[in-house]
């Protein structure tokens, strides 16, 4: 595994002139940036990936389309584009895009990008260094996978929210 350095942020999400190395404990009152990309097709299905069995952290479990930590110098968009390409071989252009939402967690900020794109998964090549396979699922199939222990055990409300936010930014229905 290659060594990764992460930028650190304060509690107001201001970038500090500090970094840390992946695998070390995040210093007190410091936070790092994580991203997730959720690719949804015209049928309203979410593209999910199965992590390789030798991956550190949730080996062999299914996860969102792409995700990972921003490395030193990355913006959230840079990280989302890089992780999607590294994990799936899909080149995204998130220029002028903001995440649909952010979830704060103990050690950082997790930005979620929802991308609408029809992808022919038959043309993707697996396994890669990080991913065994991919497939399209509905919300209900995904919730069943969590119940069966096949998918990373995210909260059901997060899954519901992602599929609800598929319609666009904001809290008002159009």
Automatic annotation (TrEMBL):
GO terms for molecular function: catalytic activity. SUPFAM superfamilies: Nudix. InterPro entries: NUDIX_hydrolase-like_dom_sf, NUDIX_hydrolase_dom. Gene3D superfamilies: Nucleoside Triphosphate Pyrophosphohydrolase. It holds the Pfam family NUDIX. Signal peptide: none annotated. Residues 30-159 form the Nudix hydrolase domain. It comes from the Bacteria. This is NUDIX domain-containing protein.
């Amino acid at each position: 595994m290659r060594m990764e350095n992460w930028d650190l942020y304060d509690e107001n999400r201001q970038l500090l002139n500090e970094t840390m190395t992946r695998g070390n404990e995040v210093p007190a009152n410091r936070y790092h940036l994580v991203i997730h990309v959720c690719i949804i097709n015209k049928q309203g299905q979410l593209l999910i990936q199965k992590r390789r069995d030798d991956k550190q952290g949730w080996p062999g479990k299914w996860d969102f389309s792409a995700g990972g930590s921003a490395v030193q110098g990355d913006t959230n968009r840079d990280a989302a584009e890089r992780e999607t390409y590294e994990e799936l071989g899909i080149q995204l252009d998130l220029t002028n895009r903001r995440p649909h939402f952010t979830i704060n967690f103990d050690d950082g900020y997790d930005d979620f990008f929802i991308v609408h794109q029809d992808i022919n998964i038959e043309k993707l090549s697996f396994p890669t260094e990080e991913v065994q396979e991919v497939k399209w699922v509905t919300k209900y199939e995904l919730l069943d996978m969590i119940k069966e222990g096949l998918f990373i055990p995210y909260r059901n409300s997060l899954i519901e929210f992602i599929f609800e936010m598929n319609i666009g930014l904001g809290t008002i229905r159009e």
